[in-house]
Predict the structure of Hemerythrin-like domain-containing protein.
Amino acid sequence: MVNDLGMPLDDDQAASVQQVLGRLKDEHGALKKELDHVQEMTTHLVGVLGSEESKLLLQEIRKVMENFMQQLEAHEHWEEVEVLPLLTEYANQGMEPTFLTSTWVLEEDHKEAERFVRSFLDYVDQCNGTDSIKLKKAITLLSVACSVISEHLRSEEEMVFPIANQMLERYV
């Protein structure tokens, strides 16, 4: 639960918070949609294990995940530069003790997700694409990575939205 935080916002601050919330929702929506696409591709891959199609599909998933990680990195950078400073200043005014801990946990989640994705990418590089056992391990790594990323996005929303909404409520 968020404590009563800080001073009311002025018009520019309220507009900034609304803009940040809109972009955050848009970017999270796009990231979630891409994760869903990866999971659909992975489900199809499971159905064609050991075939020539599995080799091609695995390489396609690899490319999608490389692109996804670039998008996630850009998103994380934006959050570090624009979102967290805005929210931290406001949360600190109200002495919200869990905010700093929550941001640290989110940072660790991101690192964990990145490790799983990197492991998946490295493992795919070692696969010849038709070895079912290696493919299953690659799929497991990818599945865990997607789960960690999904949880990370959900946790981020659970942390950011209540504070931002309280900031906007004080604006009224």
Q: What stands out?
A: The chain has one domain: 11-171. The helical segments are 11-47, 52-93, 98-126, 132-171. Residues 1-5 have pLDDT under 50 and may be disordered.
